[in-house]
């Protein structure tokens, strides 16, 4: 999620749950300095029908479904940092590695389908920081400091993670902050053998969020259940850690913009 403002742009997209709505922030004369903000939420799935559909879908369908939703921004080079304050104790030693893996998955287009690696975007890990993601507990973007920080904090009910991304008039991302809920849900980086209840996979969630930063939107929860960019995640699900064919196709389309 991202917050940096030198000159505010005219358009802000704010997402609550899985609904994206546009509203003006402030405007200035059009120039290459104007910035735009987009915010996206990843929610949990509490419906048995969707969970069953995703579970029943085969690996083949994940690699046959080439659906994707393209946004108007893309990543060239992005330096990101990690703030571990508030990380749940059970994953304190493994969370950063899992987040890094997710980031690299998107950077390289690592997928379930044997498709070639991508090299069009660069995501550099720039170390730990005490700077907090500029995302509020009500899932709003609170400003832009030109830093891309992933960290932990409270979010509204059903929201697993929330990303705010700023991009310039050329459609290139300049900053992106991600806040991961550390109050309502239990996270794992290695799936428990007896996984039950509201336990969620950090890697799946961050791969989804990094795809938002990259410039992909949500696809249909039911019709595209095997793609990482479905808008909700099921408890204990790790099947979408890597990209499906649609997620991969979306990244390739962004690269050609």
Structure commentary:
The protein is α/β, with parallel strands linked by helices. The chain has 5 helices and 13 strands. The strands form 3 sheets. Strands 1, 2, 3, 5, 6, 7, 8, 9 and 13 form a 9-stranded mixed beta sheet that branches. It has a two-stranded antiparallel sheet with strand order 4-12. The model is unreliable at 1-31 (pLDDT under 50).
What's the quick description here?
The relative contact order is 0.25. Helix content is 21%, strand content 30%.
Helix content: 10-25%
Q: Which sequence of SSEs, written as H and E, runs from N to C?
A: EEEHHEEHEEEEEEHEEH
**How much of the sequence is in beta strands?**
25-35%
Number of strands: 13
Query: How far is the N terminus from the C terminus?
Result: 22 Å
Radius of gyration: 17 Å
Which class do the helix and strand fractions yield? alpha/beta
- Total helical segments: 5
Major sheet: 9 strands, mixed
Query: Which blocks of ≥5 consecutive residues have pLDDT under 50?
Result: 1-31
Instruction: Determine the mean pLDDT.
Output: 83
General form = globular
Which helices and strands appear, and what pairs or packs with what?
Layout: E1 7-16, E2 19-23, E3 34-44, H1 48-56, H2 59-64, E4 69-70, E5 77-82, H3 95-108, E6 122-128, E7 148-153, E8 159-168, E9 173-181, E10 186-188, E11 199-201, H4 202-214, E12 216-217, E13 232-233, H5 245-255
Parallel strand pairs: 1-3, 3-13, 5-6, 5-7, 7-9, 10-11
Antiparallel strand pairs: 1-2, 3-8, 4-12, 8-9
């Amino acid at each position: 999620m991202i917050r940096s403002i030198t000159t505010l742009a005219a358009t802000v997209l704010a997402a609550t749950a899985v609904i994206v709505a546009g509203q003006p922030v402030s405007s200035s004369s059009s120039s290459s300095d104007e910035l735009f903000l987009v915010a996206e939420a990843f929610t949990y799935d509490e419906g048995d029908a969707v969970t069953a559909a995703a579970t029943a879908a085969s690996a083949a369908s994940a690699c046959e479904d080439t659906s994707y939703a393209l946004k108007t921004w893309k990543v060239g080079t992005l330096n990101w940092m990690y703030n571990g304050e508030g990380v749940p104790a059970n994953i304190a030693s493994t969370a950063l590695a899992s987040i890094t893996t997710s980031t690299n998955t998107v950077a390289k287009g690592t997928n379930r389908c044997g498709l070639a690696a991508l090299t069009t975007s660069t995501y550099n890990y720039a170390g730990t920081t005490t700077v907090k993601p500029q995302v509020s507990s009500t899932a709003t973007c609170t400003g832009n400091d030109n830093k891309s920080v992933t960290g932990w904090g409270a979010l509204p009910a059903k929201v697993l993670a929330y990303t705010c991304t700023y991009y310039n008039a050329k459609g290139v991302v300049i900053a992106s902050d991600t806040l991961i809920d550390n109050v309502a849900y239990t996270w794992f980086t290695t799936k428990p053998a007896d996984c039950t209840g509201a336990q969620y996979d950090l890697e799946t969630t961050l791969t989804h969020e990094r795809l938002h930063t990259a410039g992909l939107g949500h696809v249909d929860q039911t019709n595209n259940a095997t793609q990482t960019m479905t808008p909700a995640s099921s408890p204990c699900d790790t099947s979408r850690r890597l990209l499906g064919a649609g997620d991969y196709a979306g990244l390739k389309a962004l690269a050609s913009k």
